Every structure is written in structure tokens, then in C-alpha cells.
Amino acid sequence: MPPTHGNTGQEDGPAAASVRAALRDFLKREILHDPQYPLKDDEPLISSGLIDSFSLVDIALWVENAYGLRIDDNQLTADNFDTVAELADHILEHGHL
């Protein structure tokens, strides 16, 4: 099922929900080291100080391994990927799902 694109900035549908859930799980387990943390899709990650910018490299490597999508270093910024929703949208738009 192809992702649906809207003007809201967030993808809808089962593929989007699956990607967001996988991202939340990875972030809570591997980056935050707190599987019980109530991470929301629109919660700022970097700009809020929840994670540091160095964690973006780990996230990019996970995205590449999980979805076959390489994120260029110059794209790894809080402006592009500050929330789970933004990361998921990028994966759905550019990945091979």
C-alpha cells in the first residue's frame, strides 16, 4: 500500500503507523534507554534536549539498516528530523516500502 501524502506533514495509514511505532521503539530502547518513556510522534527530540545531535547518526544508521534508506549527513539536522513524525514522513517519502 503506497503512503498517502497530505498537507498535514504526517503520513496516514498502516505503513505510516508501523514506521512511527518502529521508530518510537528504537528511540526508546536504544537512544533514550527507557522503553517505558511515553514518546509522542510530535514531541521535539533535539530542540527539547531529549536527545543530542550525535544521536542522529545512530538514528540514520538504524534507518538505513531497517529501511534501506541512506540519509545524507547534511540532512541530519533538528530542522529536518526533530520528531518521530518528521522521521517517519521522510522514510515513507524516500524509502522503499
How does this model look, in words?
- It is a single chain.
- This protein has 97 residues and is mainly α.
- It is built from three helices and no strands.
- It has helices spanning 14-31, 55-67, 84-94.
- The longest helix has 18 residues, at 14-31.
- Mean pLDDT is 87; it is low at 1-9.
Measured distance between first and last alpha carbons: 8 Å
CATH level 1 name: Mainly Alpha
User: Oligomeric form of this entry?
Assistant: single chain
- So, the CATH homologous superfamily? ACP-like
- Kindly name the structural category: mainly alpha
Query: How many domains, in number, for the residues?
Result: 1
What is the averaged pLDDT score? Answer: 87
Sheet with most strands: none
**CATH fold-level topology:** Non-ribosomal Peptide Synthetase Peptidyl Carrier Protein, Chain A
What order do the SSEs take from the amino end to the carboxyl end, as H and E? HHH
Q: What is the tally of helical segments?
A: 3
Strand tally is 0
Helix fraction, binned, reads 40-55%
Which blocks of ≥5 consecutive residues have pLDDT under 50?
1-9
The best one-word shape is globular
| CATH structural architecture | Orthogonal Bundle
Q: Which band does the percent of strand residues land in?
A: under 5%
Question: Measured on Cα atoms, how large is the radius of gyration?
Answer: 12 Å
